[in-house]
């Protein structure tokens, strides 16, 4: 089981975190991955300068936008 944490703090909220969450939720649903991926909201992940801060499992903090949110899920499944 992989965990995706998406920052919902004020900086990421302004950058579109709820849109990113919505896209990731829809992708998980469309690809029947709810048994493989858990999506969680998180407060500040410490990298507020670029896009929405996202962390996969306990890995690096990534900057994600609505444009590349769907591909994030695909990249997780490629490592399985």
Task: Give a structural overview.
- This protein is of the alpha+beta class and 80 residues long.
- It has one domain (2-78): Glutaredoxin, CATH 3.40.30.
- It contains 3 helices and 4 strands.
- It has helices at residues 10-14, 17-30, 69-78, and strands spanning 2-7, 37-42, 52-56, 61-64.
- Strands 2-1-3-4 form a 4-stranded mixed beta sheet.
- A hairpin with a 4-residue loop joins strand 3 and strand 4 (61-64).
- Helix 2 packs across helix 3.
- The longest helix has 14 residues, at 17-30.
- It is globular.
- The mean pLDDT is 91.
Summarize the helix and strand pattern as letters.
EHHEEEH
Shape summary: globular
Instruction: List the uncertain runs.
Output: none
Largest β sheet strand count, sense and barrel closure: 4 strands, mixed
Spatial order of strands in the largest sheet: 2-1-3-4
Our Rg estimate from Cα atoms comes to 11 Å
The assigned CATH architecture is: 3-Layer(aba) Sandwich
Summarize model confidence as the mean pLDDT: 91
- The end-to-end distance, rounded to whole angstroms, is 10 Å
| Strand content range | 25-35%
Determine the number of helices (DSSP H or I, runs of at least 4 residues): 3
CATH evolutionary superfamily: Glutaredoxin
Sheet/helix structural class: alpha+beta
Query: How many β strands by DSSP?
Result: 4
Give the CATH level 1 class: Alpha Beta
The count of domains is 1
Q: What share of residues is helical? A: 25-40%
Query: What is the fold-level CATH name, i.e. the topology?
Result: Glutaredoxin
């Amino acid at each position: 089981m992989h965990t995706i944490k998406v920052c919902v703090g004020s900086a990421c909220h302004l950058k579109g975190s709820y849109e990113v969450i919505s896209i990731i939720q829809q992708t998980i649903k469309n690809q029947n991955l709810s048994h493989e991926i858990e999506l969680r909201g998180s407060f500040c992940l410490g990298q507020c300068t670029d896009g929405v801060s996202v962390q996969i499992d306990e890995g690096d903090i990534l900057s994600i936008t609505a444009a590349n949110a769907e591909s994030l899920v695909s990249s997780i499944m490629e490592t399985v």
